[in-house]
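Example record for the data management plan.
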Amino acid sequence: MSPKVISLVIFIIAYVLFVFFANKRTLIAIIAAALLLLSRTISLSQAFWAINWNVMGIFVGTLVVADIFMDSRVPAYLAEIIVDRAKNTAWAILLICALTGFISAFVENVAAVLIVAPIAFALAKKLKINPTNMIIGIAISSNLQGAATLIGDPPSMLLAGFAKMNFMDFFFYKSRPSIFFAVELGAFVSFFVLYYIFRKHREKMQLVPLEKVKSWMPTIILVALIVALAFSSFFDTGFSYMAGVLCMIAAGVSIIWKKIGRHGSIVSSLKAFDWDTTLFLAGVFILVGSITTGGWIEVMAASLSGVV
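Corresponding structural encoding:
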């Protein structure tokens, strides 16, 4: 069997397994990549360069920055302020969803939900209602906004890597409103739906402040990274390396700050790091690289162009 055929067979099998065994996706991706290397379908050098290191740098860097940002308790602190100042409970829930969405546009979605969820549970407990609808609203807001910017979610990073889109391209692409505005339009409409669901909760209430901000430094690092990425769009128009480098620099600064300031254990941060998604992305890059090297991408593109 030729290397070209082997690459396609392994890719198809891996893809099918991803669908049916989603919880084992990382293991499947690693095994598939290992089989490609062992069968010499793709060389070690080709596998290395098949990985988009710019995207990996963005993903790893933003994960580290997001970790210390969440650990600073700033998001939870802001959520409590919103609840205390909202005119009623319905608006408090809406504003919490909006805050979660805003945070998720720049950090990992699951982390944003986990940090805000306790506020929702505290609200539900005081109102003596089922918190399910609140958590679903928060999760939807988070998931939707993750696609709004380059650093919000891995799919956005993959899109940027393929289409050579920089940070500002998510706002304006070829002088036209881009993905960000489409996402915000969807978010705007979703708030009417959420308001309809929670409209009955007119109670005015206050939560007992529980959160204290550990440090504002992580927020400064995150804001500085966003500004740096925006400016880098004017220099690295081909999305080749600068975004990944900036994110890794921000991650390095975060780790140094955490170590020097004794704001937590680096070992515990490494244990909590999302190794699962990181290794999955690397494996997928190698899988795609193998069928690209084998010429299958061109074959599929030609077939689809004939149909379309």
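Summary line stored alongside the record: Strands lie at 172-173, 176-177.
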